[in-house]
TrEMBL record:
Organism in which the protein naturally occurs: Kushneria pakistanensis
Cofactor(s) annotated in UniProt: Mg(2+)
InterPro entries per record: MoaB/Mog-like_dom_sf, MoaB/Mog_dom, MoCF_biosynth_CS, MoeA-like, MoeA_C_domain_IV, MoeA_C_domain_IV_sf, MoeA_linker/N, MoeA_linker/N_sf
SUPFAM superfamilies registered for this protein in UniProt: MoeA C-terminal domain-like, MoeA N-terminal region -like, Molybdenum cofactor biosynthesis proteins
Family membership noted in the UniProt record: Belongs to the MoeA family.
UniProt keyword annotations, A-Z: Magnesium, Metal-binding, Molybdenum, Molybdenum cofactor biosynthesis, Transferase
SMART domains linked: MoCF_biosynth
Protein name per UniProt: Molybdopterin molybdenumtransferase
Pfam families for this protein: MoCF_biosynth, MoeA_C, MoeA_N
Biological or metabolic pathway of the protein: Cofactor biosynthesis; molybdopterin biosynthesis
Length: 411
């Protein structure tokens, strides 16, 4: 096997790295049947086909009276139709029934006039504006929204409140969704400690990456099956990663994939599988690896906390969405006006933390934050977007258009 971890060689462009990830084409994880009440934010695994029409019957769209329109101005009231309590007799010409919104339209009726346009005098209803009445008005016809046999939702649909409401309207108590992908997350290094662990023995750092990466993936719909710290030993790293690959659909590490002497994750992966891509022309996030442990996709993210989260957003997210079964997912990008001069490095995509705002005319403007160090986690939660400075631009003037990535799904 060639040394994909060699410290020499050209960096992959962002598009090349994404092409390698896309070429892996992971299949969505398996499906499961869940109650509709537990399906919010899940991904549909099978087509949702209507076995009922919607509306199920022709009904009134207004409170008022229903009748057969023949140009009348005065109608005799012969009963009422309520939602859940229909009028079961046929309504003759010249007659009308009082009707409520959603009540089945009685036989013989083809028009509804709303209550505000009616004057009731005893057993008679007079139309206030008969010249404005049109045959068929204020009626919801059976099947006009959904017909029996319609494919309502395709596999890959994200089930939000409206989609779940539609499924319930069609009588579904259970629904087939993709299983949540299982993800194992490791941080790497003997200097790391878990929050709450005894920190008195030697200079050490509390591990932030495992928690922030797990939190982000949970928002996207992951089931986190493992978070751990890999030791600075080849044997320990191999054992941890091997165990994770038996339990997870995706394995992620942070730290341990640069060219440092103690970075053993790359050596462990070489024993367990292969890395097809390494080192990307992006800041933050250059020391990043992608490959497989057996058939399980593997990402080695940088150790700096901002770089770890940014690479998660740029590279892990597209593959994770595929595992979820989201076939039409695309990252969100907006156009904005740059408020300050920007500097980058030619040949590398710079993702600068910034804050955007929208003025009264709907124009989005963005300013860059002063602090851009990839170790400064505070700079990420102070930001609400990433400003893209493409690889073919070393600078950007104030007032120029830029592309931004809103951080709503990340922070």
């Amino acid at each position: 096997m060639s040394d994909c971890f060699g410290s020499s060689g050209a960096l992959l462009s962002v598009s090349e790295m994404l092409a390698h990830i896309t070429a892996a084409s992971p299949m969505p994880v398996g499906s499961e049947r869940v109650p509709l009440s537990q399906a919010v934010d899940r991904i549909l695994a099978e087509p949702l086909v209507a076995t009922l029409s919607l509306p199920r019957y022709t009904a009134s769209a207004m409170d008022g009276i229903a009748f057969c329109h023949q140009g009348q101005t005065r109608l005799g009231l012969v009963g009422e139709a309520l939602a859940g309590h229909p009028f079961n007799a046929e309504v003759a010409p010249g007659e009308a029934v009082a009707i409520t919104t959603g009540a089945p339209l009685p036989a013989g009726c083809d028009t509804v006039v709303m209550a505000e346009d009616i004057i009731v005098r005893g057993a008679w209803a007079e139309l206030s504006h008969p010249e404005a009445v049109r045959r068929g008005q204020n009626i919801r016809h059976a099947g006009e929204e959904i017909a029996i046999g319609d494919h309502v939702f395709a596999p890959g649909t994200l089930l939000g409140p409206a989609q779940l409401g539609m499924a319930a309207s069609l009588g579904h108590e259970y629904i087939d969704v993709h299983r949540r992908p299982r993800v194992a997350i490791f941080s790497s290094g003997d200097e790391l400690r878990r929050a709450g662990a005894n920190d008195d023995t030697a200079p050490s750092l509390f591990d932030a990456n495992a928690f922030s990466l797990a939190a982000c993936l949970k928002r996207w719909g992951a089931e986190i099956v493992m978070t751990d710290i890999l030791p600075d030993s080849l044997e320990g790293s191999v054992a941890g990663l091997s165990s994770a690959s038996q339990q997870a659909d995706l394995v992620i590490t942070s730290g341990g994939v640069s060219a440092g002497q103690a970075d053993l994750v790359r050596a462990a992966i070489q024993q367990l599988g292969q890395v097809t891509s390494w080192r990307v022309a992006m800041r933050p996030g250059k020391p990043m690896a992608f490959g497989h442990i057996g058939q399980v996709p593997f990402f080695g993210l940088p150790g700096n906390p901002v770089a770890a989260l940014v690479t998660l957003m740029q590279f892990v997210q597209p593959l994770f969405r595929q595992l979820c079964g989201m076939v039409h997912w695309k990252p969100v990008r907006w156009h904005a006006i740059n408020e300050q001069p920007l500097k980058g490095r030619y040949g590398r995509l710079d993702l600068l933390r910034g804050r955007y705002h929208v003025n009264a005319q709907g124009v989005i403007s963005v300013s860059v934050l002063k602090e851009q160090g990839s170790h400064r986690l505070s700079s990420l939660y102070d930001a609400n977007c990433l400003i893209e400075l493409p690889a073919d631009m070393a600078a950007c003037d104030a007032g120029a258009p830029v592309t931004i990535q809103p951080l709503g799904e990340l922070i």
